[in-house]
Amino acid sequence: MQTDFLNDDRNIHPNRLSVDVLIVGSGLAGVLTALALDEHSNRYDVPPPNILLISKGRVTETNSYRAQGGISAALGPNDAPKLHARDTFYAGGKKGLLEAIHALTEKAPSLIRFLETTGIVFDRDRHGNVSLHLEGGHSRRRIVHAGGAETGKKIMQTLIHQVKQRKHTTFWEQALTLKLYAHPARMGALIARLDTPMHDAPSDWRGSAWHESETVPSSPHRPNSSTGSFGQAPSIVQTHPSKSHQIPNGKSLLRPSIWMVSTKVIVLASGGIGGLFPFTTNETLLTGDGFALAAELGTMLSDLDLVQYHPTALLTEERPLILLSEALRGEGARLVTDTGEPFHMTVGDDLAPRHQVTEAIFKTRARGKSVLLDARSIPHFKEHFPALYRILTERGLNPAEDLLPVIPAQHSIMGGIAANLSGETSLPRLFAIGEVACTGVHGINRLASNGLLEAGVMAMQAKDALFPYLQQKDDPKAETIIFVMAQETLSLLTEKEKADLVKPRINWLPDHTLLKIIFQHTAQHLTPLSPSERPIAISSDPPEDNRSSLEEALHTLTSLLAHTPRLSPEWLALKTTVLMLEHRLSRIHRLHPNQSLSCESIDTMHEPLR
Ligand SMILES: Cc1cc2nc3c(=O)[nH]c(=O)nc-3n(C[C@H](O)[C@H](O)[C@H](O)COP(=O)(O)OP(=O)(O)OC[C@H]3O[C@@H](n4cnc5c(N)ncnc54)[C@H](O)[C@@H]3O)c2cc1C
């Protein structure tokens, strides 16, 4: 890997870097792609590619690290990939692509075996076999866990440790991809990396903690112990701001340096969109940047408005919210209203599919009632759910006595960059892997524990599709063109934009004021879909009003985007929000905007797999 300092007379002096593969994202999709490429070259005795792997935040700040439940794979004696495929198809409202679903579920057992070879230890039963668990929507026990409810953390700790040992892989944390460039023989990226220590914070630096000022913190919700009756429902539980970032002293501040990267291929593994929603279970730095970056290159995007909510996140003032998984309801916890009435689902029961429970909770809240999870009947909660018990008690809640206030929260996105299971997109040399990709397997609703599976299987598949590009000779002319394009982008910035670009930021979070505007629109317009593709109602507004307010929202955000500096986290967040709203509007109008495919049309992306 070579670096070179490009002198110019402007106040940004970008560094230049040339690699074989740039991987944007250090969740399961990104890290496993890096490891799989390295393994592949060992096996075929070819020189390993130089890889630059970057993540926007710290290595632990990914959804992969947060994953609790596990990975699904048909490993049991009474199970088969085709049964797993059937469950995936039905959970997705029968809208998924069967061919892709079958390919995914068939590869699941070999993914688990491969992960075991890396040193990951999956939980075992008393006979020494991998223990298989059940989750909502699965007709067989097929969820594998590592460390109980810490599956994501255990997997990622092992894989990150390994990737850091690889000589040819360079890992940058806190590095933001701002823009991509494409040439038939080369790709490129502009990256801002927090790596230069600062001794004095600029006076206008805004690094304060996030405060949800509209919501009033109050005390934990518990029934009156003497009467068993319910008091006034609090809207939120007060917590210690343990995850908030305090303004650090000048010494620990880092200023970004700007990098122009030239590469043979780019793998976007940049995950989801939770940071664009007021209530989310996701890492809040995930603002769907990959969608904005790919759209700018004219790459096909599909169904960006297919957002999944998890019905039961613990209602606190934190971001992200804590997930209260379906496993609690599976063990007997029940949803109740704040006045103690049982909670009525229109269809099914408390364990109905996520979008149905979500809709029922929204309707109850629209009537002015809060919804709570009563887990008091779960025997031995502490032993069954030790990690969750610790999290709840840290927040002053005792699940044996207290009712747990819940709210539906954005959880994942089914749409994304149209790709096949090898990550190939409509643009040669650009790959999309994991949650950022739309392979069509999830239909309109992702089945529990299929998220890690998809990220892992795609990473393992991608190496074969990537390799032909890596064996091509370097093209110095194409590389020069990439650097010239990147330099041009920088030269168009105003002095203020240049100064803003090199200011320190925490986790590259967009400006709070802008985020609040985005939140209003995502919460109102990007609700989950029912199987009839009708957006589920969160209020009593008639659909016609929804359509005109969606058009207004698009107008407002598009104007804001036009006035937002291109090389900023704000631009990436806004651009993605606009794309998502456009896709929702086009669904409503039954038209498709430019660069968009319907889920069915992704079928063409699977050609290379046939
Ligand atoms: C609370 C929670 C629990 C879950 N539990 C499960 C479960 O039990 N089983 C399951 O299968 N799935 C689960 N999921 C879903 C699963 O975690 C995701 O589907 C999966 O982790 C996605 O992996 P990924 O590698 O695509 O993205 P992520 O792991 O989210 O990684 C995204 C990466 O992209 C980087 N990035 C983003 N933008 C940029 C940029 N502009 N520049 C540089 N880097 C960037 C980020 O820094 C990060 O490193 C859960 C999700 C959540 C939130």
What do these coordinates show?
Its EC number is 1.4.3.16. The chain is α/β, with parallel strands linked by helices and 610 residues long. The chain is 33% helix and 17% strand. It contains 16 helices and 19 strands. The chain has helices at 28-43, 63-66, 81-91, 98-117, 151-165, 289-296, 326-330, 354-366, 381-384, 386-394, 451-470, 476-491, 495-501, 512-525, 543-562, 569-589; strands at residues 2-5, 15-24, 51-54, 71-72, 143-144, 169-172, 175-183, 186-197, 254-268, 301-302, 307-314, 322-323, 334-337, 371-374, 404-413, 416-418, 430-432, 437-438, 596-597. The strands form 4 sheets. Strands 1, 2, 3, 6, 7, 8, 9 and 17 form an 8-stranded mixed beta sheet that branches. It has a 5-stranded antiparallel beta sheet with strand order 12-11-15-14-13. Strands 18-16-10-19 form a 4-stranded mixed beta sheet, covered by helices on one side. Helix 1 (28-43) links the parallel strand 2 (15-24) and strand 3 (51-54). The longest helix is centred in the last third of the chain and has 21 residues, at 569-589. It starts with a strand and ends in a 13-residue tail after the last strand. The relative contact order is 0.17. Residues 2-11, 202-251 and 591-601 have low confidence and may be disordered. Bound molecules: flavin-adenine dinucleotide. Residues 24-30, 54-57, 62-64, 66-71, 151-152, 175-177, 269-271, 281-282, 286, 289, 323, 412, 434-436, 449-453, 455 line the site of flavin-adenine dinucleotide. The site of flavin-adenine dinucleotide has 43 residues, from helix 1, helix 2, helix 5, strand 7 and helix 11.
